[in-house]
Structures are given as structure tokens and as C-alpha cells.
Amino acid sequence: MPKKVAYEGRVESWSVMDKDGKTDEKMMPKLSKEQVKEMLRWMVLARVFDDKCFKLQRQGRMGTYAQSTGQEACQIPVALAMQEQDWVFPCFREHPIILMRGFPMAQYLWYWGGDERGMKVPEDVNVFPVAVPVGTQMLHAVGYAWGSKLQGKDVATVTYFGDGGTSEGDFHEAMNFAGVFQTPTLFVCQNNQWAISVPRKKQTRAETLAQKALAYGFEGIQVDGNDVFAVYAAAKHALDKAHAGKGPTLLELMTYRMGDHTTSDDAKKYRPPEEIAYWRERDPIDRLKKYGKANGLWDEGFEQKCLDDAVATVEKAVEAYEAFPKPEPEDMFKYMYKEMTMDLTEQMAMLKRWLDEERQE
Amino acid sequence: MAMVKATLVEAINAALRQEMERDKRVIVIGEDVGKDGGVFRVTDGLYARFGEERVIDTPLAESGIVGTAIGLAVSGLRPVAEVQFDGFVYPAFDQLISHAARIRNRSRGRFHCPLVLRMPYGGGIKALEHHSEAMEALFVHLPGCKVVIPSNPYDAKGLMVSAIREEDPVLFLEPKKLYRAFKQEIPEEPYAVPLGEARLVREGTDVTVVSYGNMARVSNDAAELAQEQGISAEVIDLRTVSPLDKKAVVDSVKKTGRAVIVHEAPRSCGVGAELAATIARRAILSLKAPMERITGCDIITPYPRLEDYYLPNPKRVLNAIKKTMSDF
After folding, report:
1. Which end of chain B is more exposed for a tag (fewer CB within 10 A), N or C?
2. pLDDT (tens digit, 9 = 90+) per residue, B26-54?
3. Structure ipTM
4. Which CATH class is domain B199-326?
5. Interface of A with B (CB under 8 A)
6. Hey, which residues does B170 pair with through a beta bridge?
7. Before A129, cis peptide (omega within 30)?
8. Mutate which of B54, B68, B104, B241 to test chain A, going by most A C-beta atoms within 10 A?
């Protein structure tokens, strides 16, 4: 018998704007001038917030922090493309989208400052808590989308992870469940080229990460992740599909982690400087500024106002963060179960006794 | 109240069916739980009764089952997920320990995870490797989860009803050996047995025997043998191993002055170790003899040909009872 082709797949690569801010009008998504300016404002705010957090950590005013600088365009346009009832299931580098989805900035700082109350997500904010174990949170996004679908609710979920996360087993289980149950889920892979010190090519032999979607029976698209327009177009396409009952999509956003993995890392040890220079030329904020300048959306006055507003917002949040009093020790016990067990009640009293005794000594 | 005779399998099945009838949010997910009704038939008939949107066969992936169940629970449903055997739950352990058990605390109560994870548990059925372990101590060490191990159909139904109505994750470990071992009269109507409350199986005055699951039956058989020899043993079935009903145990030991703790799980740092420490702290002045623990050993659970040596049996428990009575 002659051999036949059992399956043929295809992965598209999307980009709209080049590094100088010139756009391909055929690919350009529909966005109002105000929406473009809104994205620029949020990207500037996210960058200012990120710089401030880095400094706070260095000054001993905050704990370990994972910088998002360079990845703003992977997140801000996605937030813009989401519907109000949609949910974000982040990992730990998603400050821009978390803030744009309405998470109060001061409260978000509590979390990074080591206070659990930071992740008591406000009732009207559709963001799931930060997930530290790499690659575990996509399953929650799939389950949430699946549950919403079973309950007849029109809700899509967006989950974030990195190139390293695609090597985790749970990524594959999440993609598989999403495909089988056709859940309205957008998988956003921020391929920032590095998982701490291990480069993308050591995570998988596959040519793209986007193609992994094909094995689970749905669309995967590789997108220029430093191009707000391409990311918006791809996210809008995927979310429209999700809301139309057409199942999940994987986006591989090509980007770069401009900072270290976290404030505990030193990327100079393993990354070539020319690579950083290459990506600096493709900075997502600079590109959008160039576009804005050429299209009458941006001038120095606007930039200064964006910056001033961002600094004021961040400084105000930092002030509120640092003024926030430490929780009582009882707080550690209160949220283990809906009602405290007998053991926990006793252990809480025991800890109190220990603390009293220590204070007296 | 109308009564029916039911095996443990039938009792859990009835609890699932009645809770699904009562509450539309309850769904069943897992491998082969649909048309097949589960490999032990615990979900038999539910697919026909409730359809494929509420009784859902999933891909063969335990972490996927538990991880998506977390999302399902947070979205407003009340998933009852099945892992086909306790020996296959480990891929899902990360989801349990890193997320299910923590989400309430992590979000300071904003989110919680009303999820029941059922699995066949323990030995005594001469099964293949990975099908006979008793690893409840791993789960007991997950703050944020509750762990239930029933020993009879009546408790199993009532505990399952409570587990489904809980607002926090419950691991429901079903002793395989007891699935069809005997029938018991149970109420046809739904009823709840509260989590965290031990059951007094048998009153006695000389020695307290504490156990749960299949070992509660073994302990009761041992108490009967002891009775023949003039020893009055009190038997306590914990029913829930997290949280532990320590008060019931301590009160009983204060009365009898002797304690034998029985479980099939490995000995070191097992549930029995916590019980012994609790008794030592709260009832040591009542003790007339050192406590005895009859447990599994700290070894890989043996395959069928050696299993009988490993698993505690009534004679072994009886000898421990006699030891607490005679040596001191």
C-alpha cells in the first residue's frame, strides 16, 4: 500500500508593525485612537511600576520580585481584547495585565511584600491569584472555562505561562482537556527566550511552541509579542472564537525578558549582551511610540504626562503599601478551612501562648 | 424511615445520586466514570440518570482531573472527581498540595475549592503492584484538605453527603476490601455523618482500640476475640483522619487506661504516631501500660503472596491488646 499523509499542520506567524513603528495596513486590527493611547499609557505605567518594584527590592523594602519589563505588549493588548466577564489565570510575571484588569496596585504590592492579604482579589476583579509553581495554573483556567460553559455562562479564560512552562506535564494535560472539551480558553505563552538560565532551544526540539496546539486539535499562532497590534489582533481573534463556542487557541508571543528572572538572579552570567541589544531595539513601548509619533497620537507633552501620571500613581500605591500594618498572627490560621478545626483552634491558642512567653522573657 | 440493604459501593453510589438530585452544581468527573460506572462501579447508573454533562469521562490524566476540578469548583460547580486507584493519585499530588489545599488561604477566603476527590484505598484484595497501598499520612499532611476513610456502608453514605456539602477539598478514601465485603441496613433517604467525628463501635472498660477503614473491622473482630478471654475492649472508628477526633480518643483512654492503635499504613509518622503523641500529652497519667501500635511496616507494600504477612489481622491486634493487659 502506498504511504499517505495522515495529517498536515500549519502555523502562522503574525506581525503588524515593524521595529520602526511602520504598520501593515492589511493586518492592522480595528482600534480607536483612544484605545491606542490607552495601551501606551498602560504600558508606560507597567514599566514605571516594574522599575519601582525592582528598586524597592534592592532597597530592602520589598521581597523577591519578577520583572515584566520588555513583555508589556504581551499583556496590555490582551487585557484590551478581553470582555469584562473574562478571567485571567496568571503565573508570576503578569503585573501589566493584572493591574489593567483592575487589581488595586497598592494591594498587589502587599503580595510582593510578603502579605497574603495581597491576593484577596477584590470581588469585582476577575483575576485568579498569582501561581508560583511553573506550569500548574493552565489547568485551573481550563477548568474554570469548562465549568462556565457547563453552566451556560459566556466566559472565556486567559492563562499565561512562559516557554519553560510548556515543558511541564500540566501544560500538556491542560491543552488536551481544553481540546477535548472545547473550552473557551486562550493559552498565552510568553516565549521570552529564557527559563532562568536555560534557553528556549533546550526546552523543546519543536521549531515553534505554537505548533504544540496542533497536536491537541486546535489552532496555534506565533505572534510578534513586542508588537501591540499583532498581539491585539491575535488575542481578539482567539477570544472571539472562544466566545463563539469555537474552543481554545494557543498564542506563542515572541518576546524577551529584559530583566533577570527575578531579583535573586543575575542574567549577565548566562546571556550574551548582543542578544539584549537586539531586543532593546525592538522594545515594545518604543515601537508604539514611533507609531504614535508618525500617526499624530504621540508627542513629548503626551509622553511626559503619561510618565508623570504613572509616577504619581505608583508613588501613591507604594505609600499605601508601606503604611499598611502587619497582620495579626491569628490571620495564619483563619483561612485554612471555612470553619477552624479543633486542632487549629488549639494550635492558635498555643502559638499565642508561646508568643506571650517569648515577650515576657 | 425506609431502610435498604447496601454494600459500601451501593451506599456511596446512593449518596452521589441523591446529592446530584439535590444540587445541580454537583458533577462527577474521572476516568471510566461514565457509561462504565467506574472500574469498581461506584458511579454506576449516574451517566444514564444525569447525562454526559454531569457525569464526565475525562482523558487519562490524574493531574488534569484534579487541576481542572479546581477550576470547575471555583467556577461555581461542585465536582466529585475519581482517581481510579490510590496508587495513581501521585501525578495529581502537586495540584492538591500546591493549589487545592491552598487556594482559600492564598486568597484569604476570596476563593475556595469545594472538591471531593474519591479513590479506592488500601490493601487486602490481592491486587497488582500500586493497587494496595495505604498512604493517607501523605494527605493528612496537607493543611487545607480533609481526609475521610469510612469503614461501613452507613458511614460511607453519610460521610459522602457531608463531603459533597463541604466548602473545602475532601479526599475520600474508600477501602477496596470493604467495597462488597458485606451489606448493611442504611436509610434510603439522604443523611449526613459529620466529618471529624469518631464513632464508638463498641463500649469497653479495659483497653481502647483506635482505628479506621478496614482496620476498624479488624479491630472489632479482635475485640470480640478479647471478649472471649475476658477482656473488655472499647473500639473507636475515627472515620475521618483529618481532622482527627482527638477528644474521643483521649476521653476513652482516660477511662480504660490502655491504648492500641491500628492502621495498615506504614508505621513511622503515620496517623498512629500523632494519636500516640496526643495520648501521651493528654492522658499519660491515666495510662496503666505502654501504648501499642499495630501498623504496616515502613516497607513497600508487598504483592499478593506476601500481603497477609503485612496487613494487620485480628489475631495480631488481639495479641497487642493482651500485651497491654499483661505486661504491666
Report:
1. N
2. 999 999 999 999 999 999 999 999 999 99
3. 0.96
4. alpha beta
5. 116-117, 119-121, 123, 128-129, 131, 133, 136-137, 139-148, 150-151, 155, 157, 169-170, 173-174, 176-177, 180, 331, 334-338, 341-343
6. B116, B146
7. no
8. B68
